[in-house]
Specification:
149 residues, mainly alpha
Length: 149
Amino acid sequence: MKALGKARPEILQKRWQQIIERYYKEVDESSFEIFLNDLRKDVKWDADFLIMLAAFELAKLGDEEAIEVLAKMGISGDIKKIQQKIQGKITNHELKQKPKEENKPVDFFVMLAKVRKEGYDVRSDILLQEWIGILKDIRETNERQNSKK
């Protein structure tokens, strides 16, 4: 991170998100759709999480509207029960976030080795733009070969 300067983590996260989005858009449209779907789920969770926390704080102060909001989210009971249910939702979300073995991302260097086996001379310090171009070329070549069969 030091090589990136003193940028705030939020800014770094936003820039990283843009790089990932561009990568998926350029390399594989179906992966991009999956990426967007996951991003939508994350944004929805973030919104629901903030609503739960704000409503919980207001419910502790006796706000009936906040209690109704929580009830619409499937969270009801006394304050202690509400807190337990919110914690349960947080725990469930965290468990869903843990990557499964079969969804393990492909290591760049494993991909690099495969690309080199295809006959491409690729440096390990390749730029993202170049990498995307090579992957597109390989995919198009494979598609042409498959269509000839």
